[in-house]
Amino acid sequence: MDNLSDDGFKNMISKDEFGRRVYRAMIAKGWRQSELARQSRLTRDSISQYVRGKSFPTRYSLDCLARALEVPAHELIPDPQLPASAQADGTFEYRLLPDTNTAFVKLSMKLPAASALKIAQIVADANCREKP
Q1: Nearest CA to 95 among 109, 82, 113, 110?
Q2: Do 18 and 56 meet the contact criterion of CB atoms below 8 Å apart?
Q3: Which of 64, 60, 108 shows the shortest CA–CA distance to 87?
Q4: Which CATH architecture has domain 4-76?
């Protein structure tokens, strides 16, 4: 299986940052690395490599980690479909809500005023459509 770094993820997030995200999610559940290994059905050595920022997981391993930690995979490694500028110059996060045609969006970055106004208009329009 290909490691995610081979698919271009290394340009979106560092191994160290991935490791910090895994570690934070693991600690939030009150787990040690051995428990995350059991819950994810991955080896203890693999978990250690990820947490120490030494390697990226395979796609399969990322899915196993996300399931065990009960977090969307894109919270561990950002979605490669997002523009690189959204990840390099600020933060852009989204989470698709299950069984709906909606998403939770969080944006924090420096933008030209015209772009910010367009986003504000999109949000205002969406809010008007959502309310009865």
Answers
A1: 82
A2: yes
A3: 108
A4: Orthogonal Bundle (1.10)
The total number of residues written for the chain in this structure: 132
| Residue type (1 letter), 97 | L
CA nearest to 52, candidates 26, 16, 28, 14: 16
The tally of CA atoms less than 13 A away on the side-chain side of residue 126 is 11
List, in order, residues 6 or more apart from 68 with CB less than 8 Å away. Answer: 36, 39, 40, 41
Contact 36, 69 (CB under 8 A): yes
Alpha-carbon dihedral of residues 117, 95, 88, 63, nearest 10 degrees?
-170
What residue spans define the domains of the chain?
4-76, 84-130
What are the tens digits of pLDDT across the range 1-20? 445 544 445 446 788 889 99
Could you report the per-residue pLDDT of 65-90, keeping only the tens digit for each?
999 999 988 888 875 554 444 444 56
Query: 81 Cβ partners below 8 Å, 6+ apart?
Result: none
Amino acid at 93: E
